[in-house]
Write a structure and sequence with these properties.
The chain is mainly alpha-helical. Helix content is 53%, strand content 9%. It contains 12 helices and 6 strands. The chain has helices at 3-15, 17-21, 25-35, 77-81, 85-135, 141-149, 156-171, 208-220, 227-236, 251-261, 284-289, 292-302, and strands at 139-140, 173-179, 184-189, 225-226, 265-269, 278-282. The strands form 2 sheets. Strands 1-3-2 form a 3-stranded antiparallel β-sheet. Helix 1 crosses helix 5.
Amino acid sequence: MPLLEMSELCNLGEDRQEHRENEDPLEAELFWAMEEDELSISSSSSSLSVFSDISEEVAAAETPSPPPSPPGACPSPEALEAPPLSETQGVGSSSQDEEQQSTTAAPEDAESSRKQAAHLMMAELVKFLLEKYRAKEPTTQAEMLSSVFMEHQDHFPEIFSRASRCLQRVFAVDVKEVDASNHSYVLVNSLGLTYDGVASDGHSMPKNGLLVLLLFVILKEGECASEEKVWKVLSDMGLHDGVEHSIFGEPRELITKVWVEEQYLEYRQVAASDCARYEFLWGPRAHAETTKLTVLEFVQNQY
């Protein structure tokens, strides 16, 4: 990246630091969801980390102060006037080491600021596009540039690409170009599901990203996933029974009531079980609106 662009991004990161510290919970959730760039799903593990509940930033490690020098006898005047050659070399070496560390730290700090600034711009663009999705309004590149990027328009292609990928991963929302001549876009459900969990008030978040992952888990478990397995997966994702989530709300109500009533999931008691145990299956609406292959391909393409 050219030095001028890096400098602009670093300045942007510093200018928005105060905003970052005072952001609302949703913006923090978006920031950290995008910070997690990989999702691990294997045949032997259901470690779903993209929605991990990372609520605390890692504090920068403080450089430990060097231990104090042991007390010793006062040097003679001759020693002060002409220090031993080995001491002179040591001082020079120490000075060179400090200078080298300083020059090494500067690029690292600049890179850290650049990444933070890029994440902040991406979070702002994601929030802007979600507003368009909830309002069912199209948007254009020009509108995004004027609303989000302002003086940093050179970074639009990279940030727009990453924001689009985040919308797919977290919300299962696609950004589709409908007119290449003026770069206009619409936002649609990734899998064509007709219910997204957005309330009529337009303030809630689309939740199909989580639904698609649960449909995948059910497939992975042989088309029938135990409630224990589902909660293990949700826990790995930072979603816990009875704990409100800034994007998905209270997860038990969502997966055992809302999606069951909407017929995307079936939640039933396991037959012939000694105690009350439950399991999840695909509901009739999920079978009608998507396919197993579509869900598998979506997860594979995203992660």
